[in-house]
Each structure stands twice: as C-alpha cells, then as structure tokens.
Amino acid sequence: MKVLCYSVRLSSLTSISEKAYKAVAFDGSEAIIPKSQVLGQDYDVSKSEAYWISEWILRQKDLQYSGKKEAWFDKDTGKMLPTYTVEKHTPEQILERNKMRKSDEIIQKWMQIL
Fold it and tell me: CA-CA distance, 34 to 42, in Å (whole number)?
C-alpha cells in the first residue's frame, strides 16, 4: 500500500513509549505521533534533523510542517518509491518565428533606406 509522506524538520523526536514518539517542531508546536507513521529519517536535510511522516497523521496534528518535500513510501516494506511527475511539453514553432523575424528585419531595412 502506498503512503504519502512529508519531510518534517523537527527540533526533537523522542520515544515516549513502545508505540509513540513526541515530536517537537522549531516553532515549539508538539504532537504525539505513532511510531508506525514515522517512516524514517530524511538524510538529504543537512541543517537539522528531518523525518518522513505520513501525510494523513500530520493533517490531524497541530505540528508545523511544509508540503514542499513529499515522497511516496511502501507501507509494508517502509521503502521510498520512485517519485516522478508527468509534464507535457509543447514545442514552439521556431521556423515560423524565424521567418517573422527575418521579414521584420527586411521591413526595418527598407524603412531606413526610404
């Protein structure tokens, strides 16, 4: 099963029981997070510690987080799944633009001569 997670920067993540963490964000907001919803540490963040936490639990808690960095995880294995976005690219018609530029240049040259 796929689970959407956000990378959440925390000032501390402390184990308070065998089933829960106490998470404290940098703004002082706190929340109790089930251990099953913390899918691991985000090692790409260097200035502080960040953890991958399930999106659905973050919506229910009053904990500071950003939706900028997200990833999909396999709930059964705990591994990050490849994330990609599909973008449609429509190329410009360069030939027509060049023709227009050339015709504009020709007109400008004739205007200078006259």
Answer: 18
78-111, pLDDT tens digit by residue? 888 887 778 888 877 665 555 556 677 777 777 7
Q: Give DSSP secondary structure letters for 35-101.
A: GGGEEEE-TT--SSEEEEEEHHHHHHS-----SSSEEEEETTT-PBPP-----------HHHHHHHH
Please tell me the distance from the alpha carbon of residue 35 to that of residue 32, in angstroms, as a whole number. Answer: 9
- Domains along the chain? 2-74 (2.30.30)
For the entire predicted model, the pTM comes to: 0.69
- The values of phi and psi at residue 51, to 5°, are -130, 150
Terminal alpha carbon distance of the chain: 74
